[in-house]
């Protein structure tokens, strides 16, 4: 048989593990394995009874959930007492082998002196204090800046206390205002430092040639994705297309239908059925080419069909009547009247009869004229007046 010191050393090593003596109080964990062999015995009659009961519950549709109530033992003696109490129950939580080992070690524990027990207790406290940092959950450091001290990015979290307002920050509206200022400053920096660099890519404007009759228009949302940015619009004037006779131009207008504007004499078409702008532009180019080929077809010139303009609403813009224009005689008369008025004012100014409004106001301010007294009924005077 081993000596008492070796037995107690083995017992202390067993009870000083991370999941042993220092466990959180009232910790409830659904588990099938328990510390200190607290699970039902995995052998013998108790284990067989457990299997039978579990099979019976499964047949009746009941699920057995086992809970773990971890105990907190201050010394090995308390653990031995716990094993002894459990062995007396009808369904003990410890096996027979554990009970025999506990009874053997209990004798060695009782043989120790009081100072030896105290030394073992202090050693247990030291081990528990050293292992406390390992059990303590990792908390986010509030005084850190962008988690620079953290080596592993997986441990960077803002879930702990992220909703706590500690009165050391501005509200969400203030942050929104600061974000708006940051956006303004960003565009200001672009305008100062980056936009001038685009001057080297500037090209001299060249008007389109006579054979470039198609005018394409695109829609852009400044780099952002939008369903409408695929749309392409093309405009052209039938009279600008070379190689067409007057009959063919009229036929082209009739083929365009409601897309022809009789006021501007322009055909306008658009396409957005495809995903990209280049595809829609190619489709419009092919469509215009087919319309020109159909207009050149001499089989049917549509000469017996009039040009339908009912789709367009003509707007009449009133113009200033020419009869109301000023005649040269009327202009000369108004100019003579203005000169006569200026001559009269100059004469009054020299004689001192012309009143200068600015000087009159300045003189009134300098004299400190008081406001004229007004009769006020009794009891209706404003506060402060007697």
From TrEMBL:
The Gene Ontology CC terms held by the record are:
mitochondrial small ribosomal subunit
GO: which molecular function terms?
structural constituent of ribosome
What superkingdom heads the lineage? Eukaryota
Q: What is this protein called?
A: Mitochondrial ribosomal subunit protein-domain-containing protein
Q: Residue ranges of the Small ribosomal subunit protein mS35 mitochondrial conserved domain? A: 204-324
Q: Which GO terms describe its biological process?
A: mitochondrial translation
Note the InterPro entries from the entry: Ribosomal_mS35_mit (IPR019349), Ribosomal_mS35_mt (IPR039848)
């Amino acid at each position: 048989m081993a000596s008492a010191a070796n037995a107690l050393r083995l017992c202390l090593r067993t009870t000083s593990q991370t999941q042993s003596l220092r466990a959180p109080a009232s910790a409830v964990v659904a588990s099938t394995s328990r510390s200190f062999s607290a699970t039902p015995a995995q052998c013998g009659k108790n284990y067989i009874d457990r299997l039978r009961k579990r099979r019976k519950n499964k047949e009746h549709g009941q699920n057995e959930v086992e809970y773990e109530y971890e105990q907190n033992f201050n010394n090995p003696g308390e653990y031995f007492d716990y094993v002894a109490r459990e062995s007396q129950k009808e369904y003990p939580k410890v096996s027979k082998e554990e009970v025999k080992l506990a009874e053997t070690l209990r004798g060695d524990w009782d043989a120790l002196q009081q100072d030896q027990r105290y030394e073992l207790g202090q050693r247990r406290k030291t081990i528990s204090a050293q292992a406390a940092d390992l059990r303590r959950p990792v908390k986010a450091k509030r005084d850190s800046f962008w988690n620079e001290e953290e080596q592993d990015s997986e441990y960077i979290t803002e879930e702990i206390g992220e909703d706590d307002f500690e009165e050391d920050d501005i509200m969400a509206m203030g942050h929104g205002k600061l974000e708006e200022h940051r956006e303004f400053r960003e565009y200001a920096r672009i305008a100062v430092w980056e936009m001038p660099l685009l001057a080297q890519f500037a090209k001299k404007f060249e008007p389109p040639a006579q054979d470039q009759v198609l005018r394409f228009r695109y829609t852009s949302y400044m780099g952002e994705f939008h369903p409408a940015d695929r749309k392409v619009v093309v405009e052209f004037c039938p009279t600008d297309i070379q190689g067409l006779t007057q009959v063919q131009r009229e036929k082209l207008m009739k083929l365009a239908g409601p897309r022809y504007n009789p006021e501007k004499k322009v055909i306008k078409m658009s396409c957005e059925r495809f995903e990209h702008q280049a595809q829609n532009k190619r489709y419009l180019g092919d469509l215009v080419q087919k319309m020109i080929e159909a207009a050149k077809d001499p089989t049917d010139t549509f000469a017996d069909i009039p040009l339908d303009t009912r789709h367009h609403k003509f707007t009449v813009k009133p113009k200033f009547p020419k009869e109301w224009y000023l005649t040269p005689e009327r202009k000369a008369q108004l100019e003579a009247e203005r000169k006569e008025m200026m001559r009269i004012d100059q004469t009054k100014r020299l004689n001192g009869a012309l009143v200068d409004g600015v000087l009159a106001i300045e003189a009134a301010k300098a004299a400190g004229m008081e406001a004229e007294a007004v009769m006020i009924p009794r009891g209706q005077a404003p506060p402060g007046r007697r």
